[in-house]
């Protein structure tokens, strides 16, 4: 029995709660995962998992073993990374889920040096402004804007990004300056689906403003273009808005009003180990994105 492989199967089943999903994550058959678990239980002479037709859960001995298994697998993964760094190039495929605007801009800019440095790594981007399902879509790492990462996933914070309320100079000329939050109800607000309201901070308290307009989209780049074309007001992440504010195409509104900062996280499913290429990619992003993005 390959004990390391068996521990990997055990850790994935414990993480996903499913033999089928664990097999998909590991790229092997469900039959192999089942055999690995059986061999591990026979070797340890203890039952590790409760199995029913609906779910899989850890037994009491399984709960004791899982943390030890994860430590062993982390050490093995660390040894693999050291070996790869000294002996051979990184290889394999990384499936990355990303918001559309991030993928088209900051992520692409970060990918260029990574792929040049590691030409044998194949990168596949899955871009959508809705959260990808990591297991079902076979995602190795997903990038998400959130201040509350899903506690069922492992998350690594990459940077913080401010937001800005923006419109074009032409929109101000036509519709007048916006000096207070209450005036937003009289303006055409370009809304990112599924949002129905915008959040601000006044006197250290969150204030939510219901907004509406004649353009809604699930792609922030559409809202930016509509904003630049003078069609309305938009609540935009500064990684996308700042270049247009600095060029004069957009104007930042209500500078005295605070908009909550959003954090960008790399999230992944496995609690046990990561392939060297995936770990190297996350480390690369963390190094590239050390500086938070502030509103100008």
TrEMBL record:
Entry keyword annotation includes Thylakoid: no
GO biological process: DNA-templated transcription
Residues in HTH lysR-type domain copies: 1-59
Organism domain of life: Bacteria
Keyword entries, A-Z: DNA-binding, Transcription, Transcription regulation
GO MF assignments: DNA-binding transcription factor activity; sequence-specific DNA binding
PANTHER family, alphabetized: HTH-TYPE TRANSCRIPTIONAL REGULATOR, TRANSCRIPTIONAL REGULATORY PROTEIN
Family note: Belongs to the LysR transcriptional regulatory family.
Protein name in UniProt: LysR family transcriptional regulator
